[in-house]
Each structure stands twice: as C-alpha cells, then as structure tokens.
C-alpha cells in the first residue's frame, strides 16, 4: 500500500454526496470526484486518519487494494490465492468480508465470499502453517468484495464500525435519526453555528448534538474509541494522536443557543443522557414543550426537525401536518424551517409551498427534506395558503 498516495473511497447516503465532497475538499482531499452514494479522493495516511476522525457525512471509508478480471470461479480463486494478504493481515488476526455482487457469471455473493475466505486462509496456511480466523461481528480487519460483471475489486475498510456510530448515543427513542443523515440535513439546511437552532420535536437529541458539534467545529468522532485502521500493520499511533490534537485545537466557542422541544418526558430523559455523553449540557437546552403551542423566542432562528410519521410512529396524519403549517404561519415569522418526512404528500397537508425539496433516504424509507421560508409583513403571502406542488 502506497501510504503517500492512497486511492480513497468514502461512502455516504443518497443525496449527501455533494455535502460530503465539500467536506473532503475542506479537509484537504485531492482529486475529489462525486459518485453514486460515494465520493472518491486521494490523500496520504494522515489524511485518511483525518477523514475518519472529522468527516460528518461519511458512513464508511475504504481503500481499494486489488483489482482484476475473472471469468470463472477457478480464475477468481487463483487470483485471490496469489495476492500478498500478509501485507494487510496477520495470521493471528481475525477478519470479515462484506460483499456486493452484480454479475451474470457470479450469482451468489455468499458463495463468492466463501471462496475469497478460502483463498485467504489457504494463503496463510501455505506460507505460515497458520491461519487467521473469521469474526463477522468484531473483526480486526474487514475486507470489501465488489464484483461488477467480470471486474473484481477488493478493498480494506479503514473505519471499522460505520461512522454514524459516533459514540455518544447511549439510549434511543423508537425511531432515532441516523447521525450521518442528521448532520447531512443540517449542512443542507445551511447550519454553520451562526445564530440559533431549534429542533421542536427533538426525540433522542441527535439533531441537537450534531448541530452543537458543527457549531463548535468539534470533530464528528470525538467520542469514538476505535477505528479499523488501528489494527492495520502500518498504523501510526503517534501520527493519529497528532491529527486528533490539531483538530481539537480548532474547536471554537459557540455563542448562540441550541434548543430542543418535546412533549414526551421519556424522550427528553433519553436526550438528556445522550447530551451528557456528548458533554453538551452547557450548549444544549431541553424543554418540555408542545411545538404547536410554542412561539418564536430566538432571533435569528434556523429550525430543523424530524417529525414522526406512520412508518415509525402512529400519528393522526392530516391533522398533525396541518398543525405544523399553522404553527409555522402563526408563531414563527421570519424563520427558515426544514423538516424531513417519508409521507410524500406531507407538503399538501402542511398547506405551504416548500421553497426546496430534496430527496433523501432515512434507512430504507424514501423521504423528502423540505424547506419552508416564513416571512413577516409584505412577503408573508408568498408562502402562505399555497397548496404544495
């Protein structure tokens, strides 16, 4: 592996690719290219550490280590058996393989994964008379197998657990939003820590915590303890410590307010536990408040929230969304508000025309991330009482 010129693939969720690309550029990535649910770039080993530690919208960061064409299973095995696996894996380490197969020649990802596992084990048995073990849950080293027709690409996983596992979520409500999606939504909404932020249906507090981390420029993985690259043979602990120190020295003071409302005391208790785990008690304020009975008391204000919807939590749908629209109009003038919903008819029920609609996925649910601009005075009529498209 050429640690000075790594070819890096950063995976993300649909709709967040451009946000991710901008993050990578700001962190110093070279030759940044946007793909489907991924961004590719180049950098050295230190940059790889920085990406894992700092990038908010990355789900997984992998490095391709081998690429070849195979036209049958025998050639596939032979190519894998001849690869120098001991450059990446010790005989006494454990490993796992994730596979994606899109090929008419090779139909079954499980079978191709098994053949790859056999080739790795046979390589070590032949060379060292020892063999590494498979550990699907907590491997030391994780490989990714990707087969597109005849093209086989093997990558090594630098992240370990998915990067949405930040380390601060100790408890969760029925339907928490993914941390990477939450951060992506905030960045799409333009949150940069200037002004004030409100999540009026905060649940377990993920949007609040991610908003605070952005506002303070706190690295995304500040509270995470383990990364896949820490088990690599070329892991440089001193370099990683230096990168963490430099990033943490950039943390800035936040002078605005970040506030979360919820009507559910249990949800607020869960949010409080997570906020304490993220050491954000002095930055985030929680209130037991019904959004529909609230009035704007923060100026200026950005609002982003994830209201409940039927796939996750049962609600009285039409009435619920109508109340959101009424609250926007009557109590939140001069406010920019964003909400995400898997109900694609939500804009019509809200009764306001969204100024932006962005397609995102919350897990497997297709959603729309909707922007509403509430104006006071002469501009007020621009978005009021217009049925959504």
TrEMBL record:
Listed PROSITE patterns: N6_MTASE (PS00092), THUMP (PS51165), UPF0020 (PS01261)
Name by which UniProt lists this protein: DNA methylase
PANTHER family per the UniProt record, alphabetical: RIBOSOMAL RNA LARGE SUBUNIT METHYLTRANSFERASE K/L, RIBOSOMAL RNA LARGE SUBUNIT METHYLTRANSFERASE K_L
GO MF: RNA binding; rRNA (guanine-N2-)-methyltransferase activity; rRNA (guanine-N7-)-methyltransferase activity
Domain called THUMP: residue spans: 47-158
UniProt entry keywords in alphabetical sequence: Methyltransferase, RNA-binding, Transferase
SUPFAM superfamilies (UniProt xref): S-adenosyl-L-methionine-dependent methyltransferases
Record keyword Coiled coil present: no
Residues in coiled coil: none
KW Transport (keyword) present: no
Pfam family, one: THUMP
